[in-house]
C-alpha cells in the first residue's frame, strides 16, 4: 500500500503545477489519514461500552488512543466551556466534535 501511494504521489513536476491535481492528491492523502485514524478508533474502542457523550470520546482519545499511537501522554488539553471544541496544544490540528443532540 505504501508503495502504491508513493507511486501515486510521485507526480511529475508538470502535473504538480496544475492546482487541481495538487488539491486532488492532498485530498486523497487526507482521506487516507482519516480512514486510518477511524480504523484505529474502531479497533481500540471495540470492547468498550458505547460512548454516551462528547466528554467520553475526548477522554478516550486523550488517555487511551493517544498513548497507543504516540507512546506518550498528551501534554495538554483545552476545551471551551461547552466542551464542543477541544484543542490539543502543540499539535498541528484541532479535534472538533459536534455533540449529538438527543
UniProtKB/TrEMBL annotation:
<dbReference type="GO" id="GO:0005801">
    <property type="term" value="C:cis-Golgi network"/>
</dbReference>
<comment type="similarity">
    <text>Belongs to the TRAPP small subunits family. BET3 subfamily.</text>
</comment>
<dbReference type="InterPro" id="IPR024096">
    <property type="entry name" value="NO_sig/Golgi_transp_ligand-bd"/>
</dbReference>
<dbReference type="GO" id="GO:0005802">
    <property type="term" value="C:trans-Golgi network"/>
</dbReference>
<dbReference type="InterPro" id="IPR007194">
    <property type="entry name" value="TRAPP_component"/>
</dbReference>
<dbReference type="Pfam" id="PF04051">
    <property type="entry name" value="TRAPP"/>
</dbReference>
<dbReference type="InterPro" id="IPR037992">
    <property type="entry name" value="TRAPPC6/Trs33"/>
</dbReference>
<dbReference type="GO" id="GO:0030008">
    <property type="term" value="C:TRAPP complex"/>
</dbReference>
<dbReference type="GO" id="GO:0006888">
    <property type="term" value="P:endoplasmic reticulum to Golgi vesicle-mediated transport"/>
</dbReference>
<protein>
    <recommendedName>
        <fullName>Trafficking protein particle complex subunit 6B</fullName>
    </recommendedName>
</protein>
Amino acid at each position: 500500500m505504501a508503495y502504491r501511494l508513493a507511486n501515486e504521489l510521485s507526480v511529475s513536476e508538470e502535473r504538480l503545477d496544475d492546482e487541481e491535481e495538487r488539491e486532488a492528491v492532498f485530498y486523497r492523502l487526507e482521506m487516507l489519514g482519516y480512514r486510518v485514524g477511524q480504523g484505529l478508533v474502531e479497533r481500540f474502542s471495540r470492547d468498550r461500552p458505547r460512548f454516551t457523550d462528547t466528554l467520553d470520546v475526548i477522554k478516550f482519545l486523550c488517555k487511551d488512543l493517544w498513548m497507543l499511537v504516540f507512546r506518550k501522554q498528551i501534554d495538554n488539553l483545552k476545551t471551551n466551556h461547552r466542551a464542543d471544541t477541544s484543542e490539543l496544544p502543540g499539535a498541528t490540528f484541532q479535534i472538533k466534535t459536534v455533540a449529538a443532540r438527543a
